[in-house]
Design a protein that fits this description.
The protein is an all-alpha fold and about 150 residues long. It is about 85% helix and about 0% strand. It contains six helices and no strands. α1 crosses α2, α1 crosses α4 and α2 runs antiparallel to α3. Keywords: Cell inner membrane, Cell membrane, Membrane, Transmembrane, Transmembrane helix.
């Protein structure tokens, strides 16, 4: 349980630290950290109970996209202010490091193995964001249609 708490606090602090590096407004720092923690919790839950880093990253990025849009509406700020720092825990930095290490050691098979992981994780993060945008657009479209029908009654 202590390990889980340390991981969550680490995700929050890493997100806030990265947000400070890229000059995110102080108004968005706390909520940006909460968005990152929520996305990482979804990633951890999927990876733990279902398995697979690709699906975990899709659902983690999807939840970051949804919660980021909700936070942006709440704070009346651009979505990118919340989504960009919240992605830090999902970025495949360890695998990218392994690619460069094995390239330098002249072991192309291992470098290619880790490169495929990097590409799959990056693609799954992009897919998660795409699906979250699609979901939000469908939600607001359906809501507008229902409200129009209610107005005509």
């Amino acid at each position: 349980m202590l390990h889980f708490f340390i991981v969550i606090v680490g995700v929050y602090i890493a997100t806030i630290g990265f947000a400070l590096l890229i000059n995110v407004s102080p108004r968005a720092l706390n909520l940006g950290g909460v968005v990152a923690v929520s996305g990482y919790l979804v990633y951890l839950a999927y990876s733990t109970f279902v398995g697979g880093y690709v699906g975990g990253n899709v659902f983690g990025a999807f939840s970051i996209g949804i919660f980021g849009m909700m936070a942006a509406r709440y704070k009346k700020m651009p979505v990118i202010v919340f989504n960009t720092p919240a992605l830090v825990p999902l970025v495949p930095g360890g695998q990218a490091y392994q690619v460069m290490k094995y390239v330098a050691m002249n072991q192309p098979h291992m470098a290619f193995y880790y490169l495929t992981q990097v590409v799959m994780i990056a693609g799954s993060i992009a897919m998660g964001f795409l699906l979250s945008e699609l979901f939000i657009q469908l939600f607001y479209y359906t809501r507008r249609q229902i409200l129009r029908k209610l107005d005509h009654m």
